[in-house]
Design a protein that fits this description.
- Helix content is 42%, strand content 25%.
- The protein has helices spanning 213-273, 287-294, 301-313, 335-348, 356-364, 366-389, 397-419, 423-442, 448-463, 469-474, 477-490, 493-499, and strands at 22-23, 28-40, 46-57, 59-66, 74-82, 85-86, 88-92, 95-103, 106-116, 120-122, 125-133, 141-149, 158-161, 169-173, 176-184, 190-197, 206-207, 317-319, 324-327, 353-355.
- The protein has an eight-stranded mixed β-sheet, with no helix packed on it. The chain has a five-stranded mixed β-sheet with strand order 13-16-11-10-17, covered by helices on one side.
- A hairpin with a 5-residue loop joins strand 2 and strand 3.
- The chain is α+β, with helices and mostly antiparallel strands.
- The chain has three domains: 2-211, Immunoglobulin-like, CATH 2.60.40; 233-273 and 395-444, no CATH class; 280-393 and 452-499, no CATH class.
- The longest helix is centred in the middle third of the chain and has 61 residues, at 213-273.
- The chain contains twelve helices and 20 strands.
- Keywords: Coiled coil, Membrane, Signal, Transmembrane, Transmembrane helix.
- Pfam families: DUF2207, DUF2207_C.
- InterPro entries: DUF2207, YciQ-like_C.
- It comes from Rossellomorea aquimaris.
């Protein structure tokens, strides 16, 4: 049956006759309707008539057909007409070009040809077994119908379809078999097969000593059994689909609600304990680590500028001029600070001296750019190492693995729903699977400390614009530098603008360190 497989499963059939509608010129078109009639003749030949309705968008020159005969058959007398008006047909091997120019039109073209020896006649039956499209077809049919007509009316016929034609037999009247395929997408296979008593082909060549009735009857019974099993599975899946999707949806909702409640509880605890604290947060981590954490672990050139100024604030580095720095005697407190010193003051700089001009010259040399990027990355990793030491987020490994497995469990159901054309349940199960996997990848709730750091520094950013000169003057110069360096590191334009109008006890301007790309 046509619905026994998804549109992505291609049945590998060896096809010998291709009938593939495509355009001569590269224009947009659709094939709105296709009707193919196969008239079986007493001599074993088959007269084919086709009617194709094309809707073109833009200029066009015509259409093409590729007709490749099967072994021991041949294609003859290919003709095309429109409204009984003959059209020019040009043959190039197995390719037939039908010329009919126009623009933005809907046209109907009738094609006719003869398949010599198209009926295979055996001692008991004569069969017409033919593919009218296959997986190499680049065009979709919006609505396809195929009729097979016997030489004479008869009540005895055996018929079945394969691929997209499976399960599409709608009527059999007087031996005429109607395959109603409907929409056939590009890249799909579909053979039709109809067999009649051999006596209807009295002048055709017979394959002596070979009968096919029993094999064909068994194949039809097998297909009908598979179709029935398919429909039973589809009915079962359509019955349990709402429960499967609903259960997973409830589970996901419970996860999200629980995560939200826990997050709110942590935020409430942080806000409750932060009421009496000063505007400037405590230095629970180094400034570079704090800035990187507040920037969602995404480093930038501003982070490097802030880290250098932080060394000045701590007295590890002396600032001799706007762009010149010299290493002092005080030791560093963190490994990433020591790494930064070795990088800027000895690898880029010289003997403990560093300047922005030296850095610019270093980067302008293309041979140094990769090294600069690698050193920056190593330094950022050390800053991240400090952040990890403080355990600002909960890994929740067990929960995340459980959720990820839940998402993976939905994949087989997604496939089954798709195979059985239960597209709505396929969509919902796929969506839920993606949401489960995203939750497993991204869910790392903040600890109390992580939430406290984020809350306090966000509070500083949001309220800093309202700080008055008196409150600012009460801060020690080191506290002012903390706030200033943080503003540079996170590139908080509102804070930086406010600082320009506040009196500074310590004059310190930001250094423009080039960003790492």
């Amino acid at each position: 049956m046509k619905h026994m497989k998804t549109r992505t499963i291609i049945l590998a059939l060896v096809l010998c006759l291709f009938l593939i509608p495509v355009q001569v010129s590269a224009v947009d078109f659709t094939i709105d309707h296709t009707q193919i009639d196969a008239f079986l003749q007493e001599d074993g030949n088959v007269q084919i008539t086709e009617q194709h309705t094309y809707q073109f968008d833009g200029d066009f020159n015509g259409i093409t057909r590729t007709l490749i005969p099967k072994e021991n058959t041949r294609i003859e007398n290919v003709e095309a007409v429109e409204n009984n008006k003959p059209l020019e047909v040009e043959q190039e091997g197995n390719l037939y070009k039908i010329f009919r120019g126009g623009s933005d039109e809907t046209i109907t073209i009738d094609l006719s040809y003869t398949i010599k020896n198209g009926v295979e006649v055996y001692t008991d039956l004569g069969q017409f077994y033919w593919p009218f499209f296959d997986s190499s077809n680049e065009s979709s049919y919006e609505n396809m119908e195929i009729y097979v007509h016997p030489p004479q009316p008869t009540g005895e016929v055996l018929a079945l379809g394969y691929g997209e034609a499976a399960g599409t037999i709608q009527t059999i009247k007087d031996g005429v078999v109607h395959f109603e395929l409907g929409e056939v997408e590009s890249g799909e296979n579909g053979d039709i097969r109809a067999a009649y008593d051999a006596s209807l082909f009295p002048v055709a060549s017979i394959n002596e000593g070979k009968a096919i009735r029993s094999d064909l009857t068994a194949e039809i019974a097998d297909q009908e059994e598979k179709l029935a099993a398919f429909e039973n599975r589809k009915d079962l899946l359509s019955l349990i689909g709402p429960f499967i999707v609903g259960a997973f949806a409830i589970y996901l909702s419970a996860l999200l609600i629980t995560a939200w409640r826990k997050k709110r509880a942590v935020i409430w605890e942080v806000e409750r304990n932060s009421i009496q604290q000063s505007l400037l947060p405590k230095g629970e981590m180094s400034l570079p680590a704090t800035i990187l954490h507040m920037k969602s672990m995404i480093p930038s050139g501003n982070l490097l500028s802030a880290a250098l100024l932080n060394l000045v604030r701590k007295g590890i580095v002396d600032r001799r001029s706007e762009n010149e720095f010299i290493l002092g005697n005080r030791s560093s407190d963190h490994r990433h600070e020591e790494m930064l010193i070795q990088w800027l003051f000895y690898k880029i700089g010289n003997e403990g001296k560093f300047s922005i001009d030296t850095l610019d010259n270093y980067i302008e040399n293309k041979e140094n750019q990769q090294s600069y990027h690698e050193d920056f990355t190593k330094w950022v990793e050390e800053v991240k190492a400090e952040i990890k030491e403080h355990k600002l987020v909960q890994k929740k490994v067990g929960l995340r693995w459980t959720v990820a497995i839940s998402g993976l469990l939905l994949i087989p159901f997604t496939i089954l729903f798709g195979v059985h054309d239960l597209l709505m349940w396929m969509f919902f199960s796929l969506l839920l699977s993606i949401l489960f996997i995203l939750f497993a990848m991204l869910y790392q709730p903040r600890t109390i400390m992580g939430a406290r750091i984020k809350h306090q520094w966000n509070h500083l950013s949001s309220t800093y614009i309202n700080i008055d000169k008196k409150q600012w003057s009460e801060w020690m110069s080191d506290e002012q530098m903390w706030a200033f360096i943080y503003a540079i590191g996170v590139n908080d334009k509102a804070m930086l603008k406010k600082m320009k109008i506040l009196p500074a006890q310590v004059q310190i301007k930001g250094s423009a360190i080039p960003p790492v790309t």
